[in-house]
């Protein structure tokens, strides 16, 4: 796939095409993605460092409020194993802005081998990004050998509904039907005191019931502090006992005291405008 190949010559009705042309005059290389027009997506620009022989193109699909990174690549047969570093960098780029990853293409690394160095490095790369390989049969069959070099890698949170290969001479086309699971939001159990239900008068009444005279008999500061802690805990246990709560919302550490105060100010200002409908309250 080179620049002189017109997109209209390889386009399919009802699909958009995103492509990356082979920058050299080699007869191999160049990659493209065909995306159904009913899907919302944006092109993700993947950097191609100098000296790399890997062709890559990527998009971010938006499905059910989830971002799915789809990367297509081609690695020439005789390219050095150092090009796996480019593949790792490409996956790192899309992993930062997506919920799931689908990476597919001709890797030219035989995943059927148990001893090949490239295969071991590829498995290590898959483990790094929690990816698994979908294709389970040979994709290149020769007279004396066969290999699995055309791969589909998906994130661990993706279900494989179906995968298959279609023979075309000595090279097989691969395909897969995937289902993207929505991550389950686990509830979180926590302990708390309902301090909002306590009035200042209740605290004063409870403190008045405590016999503070033993403090004057203590000679150790630690004993005095321990007495104070025990007395105050007794007061709070009566007025606001510890209860167990459950929340399914994910933690939001960025919501600190300052953010809560600003949110309260915004809510009060909005309520004031709703009551008065005055332009002065809106600004």
What would you say this structure looks like, in words?
This is Endonuclease/exonuclease/phosphatase domain-containing protein. The chain is of the alpha+beta class and 283 residues long. The protein has 3 domains: 15-179, Endonuclease/exonuclease/phosphatase (Deoxyribonuclease I, Chain A, 4-Layer Sandwich); 185-249, no CATH class; 251-282. The longest helix is centred in the last third of the chain and has 20 residues, at 257-276. The chain has helices at 7-10, 84-95, 117-128, 200-208, 221-239, 257-276, 279-282; strands spanning 15-20, 31-36, 40-44, 55-63, 66-74, 100-106, 131-133, 140-141, 146-147, 150-155, 158-168, 171-180, 188-192, 243-247. A hairpin with a 2-residue loop joins strand 11 (158-168) and strand 12 (171-180). The chain contains 7 helices and 14 strands.
Shape: elongated
Please list the strands of the largest sheet in the order they lie side by side. Answer: 3-4-5-6-10-7
Q: Write down the CATH topology of the largest domain.
A: Deoxyribonuclease I, Chain A
Task: Report the CATH superfamily of the largest domain.
Answer: Endonuclease/exonuclease/phosphatase
Question: What is the level-2 CATH architecture name of the largest domain?
Answer: 4-Layer Sandwich
């Amino acid at each position: 796939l080179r620049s002189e190949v017109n997109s209209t010559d390889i386009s399919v009705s009802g699909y958009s095409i995103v492509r990356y042309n082979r920058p050299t005059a080699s007869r191999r290389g160049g990659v493209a993605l065909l995306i159904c027009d009913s899907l919302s997506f944006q092109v993700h620009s993947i950097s191609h460092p100098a000296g790399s022989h890997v062709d890559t193109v990527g998009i971010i699909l938006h499905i059910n409020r989830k971002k799915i990174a789809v990367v297509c690549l081609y690695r020439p047969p005789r390219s050095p194993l150092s090009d796996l570093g480019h593949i790792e960098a490409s996956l790192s780029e899309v992993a930062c802005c997506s919920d799931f990853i689908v990476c597919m293409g001709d890797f030219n690394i035989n995943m059927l081998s148990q001893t090949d160095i490239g295969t071991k490095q590829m498995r290590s790369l898959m483990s790094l990004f929690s990816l698994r390989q979908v294709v389970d049969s040979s994709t290149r069959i020769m007279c004396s050998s066969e290999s699995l070099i055309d791969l589909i890698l998906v994130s661990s949170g993706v279900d494989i509904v179906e995968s298959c290969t279609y023979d075309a001479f000595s090279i097989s086309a691969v395909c897969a039907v995937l289902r993207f699971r929505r991550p389950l939001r686990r509830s979180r159990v926590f302990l708390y005191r309902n301090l909002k239900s306590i009035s200042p008068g209740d605290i004063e009444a409870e403190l008045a019931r405590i016999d503070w005279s033993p403090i004057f008999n203590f000679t150790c500061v630690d004993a005095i502090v321990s007495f104070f802690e025990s007395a105050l805990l007794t007061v709070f246990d009566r007025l606001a006992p510890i209860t167990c709560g459950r929340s399914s919302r994910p933690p939001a550490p960025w919501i600190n005291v300052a953010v809560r105060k600003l949110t309260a100010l915004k809510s009060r200002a909005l309520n004031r405008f709703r009551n008065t409908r005055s332009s002065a309250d809106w600004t």
